[in-house]
Structures are given as structure tokens and as C-alpha cells.
Amino acid sequence: MSSMETATNERSRHLPGDLAVWFFIFAELAVFGILFIGFGVARSLDPDTFATGREALHPWTGLINTFGLITASYLVAISVHRLRHRQTRVALLLWGAIAASSIYTFGKLWEYVELYGSGYNLGTDTFFMFYFFLTFFHFMHVVLGQIILVVLAVKVKNGDYNGDDMNGMESGASYWHMVDLVWLVLFPMLYVLA
Prior knowledge:
Elements: H1 3-13, H2 19-45, H3 47-55, H4 59-84, H5 90-117, H6 126-157, H7 167-192
Helix pairs in contact: 2-3, 2-6, 2-7, 4-5, 4-7, 5-6, 6-7
């Protein structure tokens, strides 16, 4: 096997990003997993409260939020690919991802205002305690992800990332995809499942 083939195989088999970021991602997924289990146990103990609470939510807002996050993840994935292959418009794609993810940010804030205005809060019942805690915990991860995407976009624009060293770009993208993955579990768990 030639040295070029070996280098290509090594590049295609590596863990994207920094190992420390992956420890952080797995720790965050473990915390969300524990919260999801708690939600499932509480729902099994009081299904009527959870069914009633779910009826007060705005499923169309949740669906629009999902669309925004999935679109952002797609744009982030394309930007990583384009940077790796030294193509142009990487920063533009990252700004597009930030804009798409803002659909989620504004949609979630609107939903919080609507629910709070209707008298729902953390102390309403077990469902809303889980709803507000889980979604706000996730919301803060989205905001951190958006900050990371801004930093990546600025670094790409300034030429700090050019495809030679993908570590920072892949680390940020991996974190962003974790945030999206968590929402793909949260959305059906809160808005859809009985």
C-alpha cells in the first residue's frame, strides 16, 4: 500500500475533532439520558398529567424548530466537507447554519412566553417541570452551539481554518450535531408520544 493510500485510510478512520470534546459530548449525552429516563418513569407513573400537559404545547412550533435545527446541521456538515476539500463559501454556510438555528431559538422563546402567559411554569405539575427543565437545558446547549458556530465562521473568514487542520472545525461540528441529536429525541418525547 502506498503512503498516500495509508494517509487517506488514516484520515477516513479518525475520530472527528478533539478527544476531549468527545468526552464532553458523551458526558452531556449521559446527563440528557438520565433526564430522559426520569421523564419516562414520571410519565409512566402519572400518564394523565403528561397527556394533559402535552395538549398545552405547540406541536407546530416544535416541528418548525426541528426543521431549523436539521437545516443547520446539514449546513454545518456541508461546511466541514467544503473546508476539508478547500472549497469556498465555508463561512457563508456556517452563517446560514446560525440563521437556520435561530428559527429554533426564536421559536422556543416564543413558546416559553406563550406557555408562561397561559399560567404554565416549572411549578405547574410534573410534566411542566420536566418540559421547562429539559427544553431550557437543551436551549442553553443550542445557544452555546451557536456561539461556537460564530467562532468557527469568523476563524474560517480570517483564514485560521483552511483545511490543513480540521480539529477545531470538526470539534465544533461534532458538538453541534450532538445538540441536534438531543432535540430529535426531545421533540417526539415531549410533543408526540402519548
